[in-house]
Amino acid sequence: MTSLDHLIRTLTNLPGIGRKSASRIAYYILKKEKRFSETLAEQIFKVKQNIRSCSVCGNYTECDPCDICSDPGRDRTLICVVEHPQDVHTIESTGEYRGLFHVLGGAISPIDGVGPKELTFDKLVNRTNKQPVKEIIIATNPTVEGDTTALYLVRIFTDKDIRMSRLASGIPVGGDLEYADKLTLARSLRGRIPFSS
Amino acid sequence: MTSLDHLIRTLTNLPGIGRKSASRIAYYILKKEKRFSETLAEQIFKVKQNIRSCSVCGNYTECDPCDICSDPGRDRTLICVVEHPQDVHTIESTGEYRGLFHVLGGAISPIDGVGPKELTFDKLVNRTNKQPVKEIIIATNPTVEGDTTALYLVRIFTDKDIRMSRLASGIPVGGDLEYADKLTLARSLRGRIPFSS
Prior knowledge:
Two copies of one chain form a homodimer.
Chain A lengths: L2 H9 L7 H13 L2 H17 L1 E2 L6 E2 L13 E8 L2 H10 L4 E5 L17 H10 L4 E4 L5 H13 L6 E4 L15 H9 L7
């Protein structure tokens, strides 16, 4: 096997990259000037070296605590709970949210051997003991695992004086009723909101 | 910008990788153990260092001349002319071809500033002068540029006693007549072959 075959094989491990895409990417790297491959290699190497988990919220960061946790302009009474670090990035990109985050590290999924012990629920409870939290927004995925995790969260905080909310589920903006699946449509009916002008 | 943002931005340069895929890949690399990112970084770095163009055929190789050019079992009277090094790989993967290759480095495309001078036609003529070639199979893409290049090749070798052929163009195996475009169907009609049982 040549260096090229080795690279193609490693690239196929990446999410969404099949044999053909891997080969296309490898040939592209070969065709580009040397500086490109050097930069890419260095950045892949460095990203793993420089980035760690924030000790407070679990988000990926270069400094600890992360930029969001240490930002004095953030609303500290509001915590948005997500499954993965990339979800923080996604929610941040909307520009709609000014509270803090908490990354669980996944969702409860007995089939995959992920129980509450594997996730950072304890850390979240600790945070709510240390700082006055008024609301927890549950932003787990609208899947069986995400919903289970959401229910578990509600149960943990049932005795506390914290408002628990969940991201609205429904038909996407710009979507078409005709193409919405039954479950989504049912949820968006149940979760209908009063019309305000 | 963090290391993560830098990596995501570089990844979007790769073919077929948009903003979302790049971000997914970057988070995957972060999540994986350190060895994976180290291996990937090293392989990207090495591929550009180890692989060069074969001085005979222009294919990517680690040793010069390449494995195909130096293979004594290959039919040296047969040269398959392709646009890019990856086309060699694609044709090799069929296991149908036992001749040599010649990589042009692209196709004639005046709009992109690629004329015959930018491609390795001279080298191909030299090869046919040095070794007795019986047939040249033109395997450029069935596009305007590829067809132009094919015509140019035929004209170059018009005075020589070399059989010139072109890859058959037509409906793909497993395809459906209904979904074939007119041009492809027209070509497959013109290029129809006698039925042999």
